[in-house]
Amino acid sequence: MTRQSLKIDQINMDISIIQMGYLSDLKDINSYENNENIFLLIISKSDATSLNIEGSEEAFSKNEMIILSLNYAIKISLNRGDGLFIILSGRLASRYIKADRINQIIGFDSNDRIYQSIGKIENMLNAGEEIDAIESSILGFSLLVDLWIYEDKKSSISKIVVDAVEIIEEEYGQLYGVDDLADRIGVNKSYLIRLFNEHLSITPGRYLERYRIEKAKSLLKSGEFSMEMVAKLCGYDCGNYFSKVFKKNTSISPSEFIKTNTAHEGIEIPPEFYL
Q1: CATH no. for 158-274
Q2: What sections of the chain are H helices per DSSP?
């Protein structure tokens, strides 16, 4: 089994995974004193996992997680057991990790979306391939949303939101907007928007747009598709409109993004990209 960790030097303003790996590779964590939007997630994958955190022993059962703020340096080491660690940063990290969840142990089971997101992250670690920063950010964003939903899971109306998120993440390229999303779930559009805002503090339209743009970044970076094709794959009929939405979300055009993210890799941009 290949065990690797991901390190990203530049912290994304919205969401990024700065580092992730196995607890056996976890060493003392440096301080991020000037940034309140960085968090360490520790996930136990076995019973009787034990870590030494700041001189105190913390015990975890299988499928338990603790979230720590990294406003100060943390001395941490694994005593026994197995698990993962993830360091998340960005404005969305601060937005979706509630203050009362910091330093608290969160338990989950195989039926929770958190379990599925963590499984995807572990698969990425075990793939034995170079980890793509954009793809890992998409997983980080999904994990944050899953954490938020998990805290609300006892609500009788949360299943609608969960179903909506799953449809967006699986069918973002085929959805025709919030009306289509509401029809697929079988609820009123206004009701869906209100529920989404209550549970995730974001509208379903904005969530869909943000998810599409993150997927578009990955496709653009590959250099395999024209801008028109990327637009269609991400659910936009018009390349010009896609370009406007992309620039609104990233402050740069798709062509500027592909130049910036492929220049250091020596990838030549095909002429048809601009068509």
Answers
A1: 1.10.10.60
A2: 91-96, 113-126, 133-151, 158-171, 178-185, 189-200, 204-222, 227-233, 239-250, 254-262
The encoded tokens of residue 172 equal 């973002």
Q: Which helix (H) or strand (E) holds 88?
A: strand 83-89
* Structural domain 6-128, CATH architecture: Sandwich (2.60)
CA distance 6 to 230: 26
| Average pLDDT per 10 consecutive residues for the chain, totaling 275 residues | 41 68 78 70 89 85 86 80 87 75 80 81 78 75 77 60 89 93 92 86 90 89 86 92 91 86 46 35
* Torsion 94-137-180-182 (CA) sign: negative
